[in-house]
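quick one, 359 residues, struct below
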Amino acid sequence: MLTFLVQPIFGGKAPLTFFTIAVVVSAAYSGLWAGLLTTFLSVVMVGWLFQESVFLLARSQSSLALFAVLGVAISGVLQLLHRTNAKLVAARAQLVLANQELSQRSEALSRSNEELQRFAYGVSHDLQAPLRNIGTMATLLVRRNNDTMDSDSKQYAHVIVSGVKRMESMIKGLLDYAGASSDMQDRAACNSHTVLQQVIQNLHYMIDAENAVITFDELPVVQANGDRLAQVFSNLITNAIKYRGSRQPEILITAVENAKEWIFQVKDNGIGIDMKHADEIFGLFKRLHSGEEYEGSGIGLATCKAVVERNGGRIWMDSKPDTGSTFSFTIPKIAAERSKTSVAAVVEPAVHSKTIGVR
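---
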């Protein structure tokens, strides 16, 4: 009807425009077979009603063949687009469902982890009192009955007291680890130099007893939890002194920066570690030496890893047996620090070194 109506406008010529629109609309909304049917009907109607007309697409009836090919092609392309769009819609729906399920599982896992951490913290805290009582009572029992107890009984009591002390050390380590893993406090500006000085002050009895020499440069202000950063320094320095072998402990602590982070290093001259254990030593309760040879709970380095990763950094080790170890960890810079680093002139700051040692 539209083609008949526009014939006067085109001087009696009958364009195939409306037939093409009909084919496209049919294929787009109803699919391939509707498009093919519309193409077939259009060819029949054009050939029957407009045999004497001169079509705008061609000058002869051969335009019908071209139109038929175009109609079939258009129908096929639109059907392919239909199928592709349907697959995209289905994939999008599945992705939405998968994201919802993943979000629900993540929330459930987060709640489970928080409950487990609270449980571990509560149990560890509650175990301290009875363990302390056991150790105290065993010690008092030995003192009160020292004259009447035989050597085997004294040895048994000594084993009890030693086991209690080891359990107390492990519980304290677990409390530190749980706190490092679950601490949700925002990071704030923290002077790592001041933190290290406080750690050394807290460890001065161990440092004095082992005649340790600790050298450190001027350390930067970073975005971190100061108490947790102190845990890292304390554990690394304690390990460096503990695993010294027969040498006088010498520890060097430095910090260098790049565009994105501060890199801290704690280097010692101790017994070293085979690099095949480089990843293993950061696991919880992982120890490479027996308790008789070196005391420890196997939680210190795991706590360091938890603290560093909690602050958005990473920790690793380089070592060689009988030569020493270097523990490195990073703390990311905040945006303002990164901008300052990228714009600052290339001027080396003065390095201030300080050595702490005794005797």
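The radius of gyration is 39 Å.
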